[in-house]
UniProtKB/TrEMBL annotation:
Family note: Belongs to the GST superfamily. Sigma family.
Organism, as annotated: Nippostrongylus brasiliensis
Domain GST N-terminal: 2-79
One Pfam family in the UniProt entry: GST_N
Any single Gene Ontology cellular-component annotation: cytoplasm
PANTHER family to which the protein is assigned, alphabetical: GLUTATHIONE S-TRANSFERASE (PTHR11571), HEMATOPOIETIC PROSTAGLANDIN D SYNTHASE (PTHR11571:SF224)
Protein name (record): glutathione transferase
One MF term in the entry's GO annotations: glutathione transferase activity
Start and end residues of each GST C-terminal domain: 81-207
Length: 207
């Protein structure tokens, strides 16, 4: 039996998509949650000096997107063929671009950076949201028969996007205004029985 250990901070953040893939697969794993104090002495032992890190029978894999792709392919949430898998990956890469574009707003909202949050919302977040959710909407309209972003089965990028959207509407209530397809997608994904159970029982954290 393979032993999985996911190491991240005590928050959802970049570790949550992997946790939700484990939940979808109903796969046991060790959910290690670090504090700043417990992270410091371990930092040098991680492949890139950061978390999340997934240990698979003691072998370490870093970078959140690589971890998600690995787990999704392992458990069957990466598309039914190579092309679907590539489409899913492309959405994941576009999400990474979007997160870089809206980073200053998000980190300021969390208190990790200082700045004028209202100005950052107008000048940084909303333009990035408009572009990214526009792309997401195109995929959802093209794949309307299933309600998922790609193919006829939930994938890791559905989980990634739905979790982020849910987080953002709690921080910016108008985040989904004008994007009904994205809202419907979020609700569909989070209604999955395995995900619903995890979301209802996971630890309450600030991010």
């Amino acid at each position: 039996m393979v032993n999985y250990k996911l190491i991240y901070f005590d928050g959802r953040g970049a570790g949550e998509c992997a946790r939700q893939i484990f939940a979808l697969a109903e796969q046991p794993y060790e959910d290690v949650r670090l504090t700043k104090e417990t992270f410091a002495p371990l930092k040098a032992t991680f492949p890139f000096g950061q978390v999340p890190v997934l240990e698979v029978d003691g072998q370490a894999l870093a970078q959140s997107m690589a971890i998600c792709r690995f787990l999704a392919r392992k458990f069957g949430f990466a598309g039914k063929d190579d092309f679907e898998s590539a489409l899913i990956d492309s959405l994941g890469d576009q999400y990474t671009d979007y997160r870089a574009e809206m980073k200053t707003f998000y980190y300021t909202a969390l208190g990790f950076m200082t700045g004028d949050l209202d100005k950052l919302k107008t000048e940084v977040l909303l333009p990035a949201r408009e572009k990214f959710l526009g792309f997401v909407t195109k995929f959802l309209k093209k794949n309307a028969a299933s309600g998922y972003l790609v193919g006829d089965k939930i994938s890791w990028v559905d989980v990634l996007v739905a979790e982020h959207v849910s987080d953002m509407i709690n921080r910016v209530p108008e985040y989904l205004e004008g994007f009904p397809e994205v809202e419907a997608h979020m609700k569909k994904v989070r209604a999955n029985p395995q995900l619903k159970k995890w979301i209802e029982t996971r630890p309450e954290t600030a991010f």
